[in-house]
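Title: Comparing notes on inverse folding

I've been comparing how different people in this forum approach sequence design from structure. To keep things fair, I'm posting one structure and asking everyone to reply with a full sequence. Here's the target:
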């Protein structure tokens, strides 16, 4: 199974996927890593692992993922022979060009128990709301913000002494365990 990874930041979830592949617990290879952030450490991680990388040109848009950029992303992923796309800290909404090219083959990991706390900085939202638990969700991507069908979730308690940072650290531990597991589950479902 050939994976395409889209990310904007440090790439810790991409690293967890790469580690699962190296450990033999995930039968896959990362074919291509694309980022909309030329400074994203995800690109450095991929280069160190010998994985091809590329930049997604969003033409000066701060948050929008323009159709032209999505079409270029589709072309790059298809040229790399990607079977499944994993969003790993990718901070743009995926829409029609990408969704149409890879129906039910785009996954995202979100640092909350969806449908609670969609969007940015979900761990901060959980602290601010006084939640007693949080966690992470791997879900299929649809055209909404963190609204696609849930594949797997993992719970993390929120302790009274937690800060947004300490909660986020505990959630990330679960993310790194859960994402490869969810990819295996989807691969089995799709026969990849």
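Reply #1:
Here's my take.
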């Amino acid at each position: 199974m050939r994976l395409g990874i889209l990310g904007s930041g440090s790439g810790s979830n991409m690293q967890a996927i790469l580690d699962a592949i190296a450990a033999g617990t995930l039968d896959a290879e990362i074919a291509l890593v694309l980022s909309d952030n030329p400074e994203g450490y995800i690109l450095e991680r991929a280069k160190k692992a010998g994985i091809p990388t590329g930049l997604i040109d969003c033409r000066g848009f701060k948050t929008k993922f323009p159709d032209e950029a999505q079409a270029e992303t589709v072309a790059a992923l298809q040229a790399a022979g990607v079977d499944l796309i994993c969003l790993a800290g990718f901070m743009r909404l995926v829409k029609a060009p990408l969704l149409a090219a890879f129906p039910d083959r785009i996954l995202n990991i979100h640092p909350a128990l969806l449908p609670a706390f969609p969007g940015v900085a979900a761990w901060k939202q959980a602290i601010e709301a006084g939640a007693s638990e949080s966690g992470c969700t791997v879900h299929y991507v649809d055209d909404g913000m963190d609204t696609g069908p849930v594949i797997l979730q993992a719970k993390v308690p929120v302790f009274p002494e937690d800060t947004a940072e300490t909660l986020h650290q505990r959630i990330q531990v679960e993310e790194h365990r859960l994402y490869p597991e969810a990819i295996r589950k989807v691969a089995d479902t799709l026969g990849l």
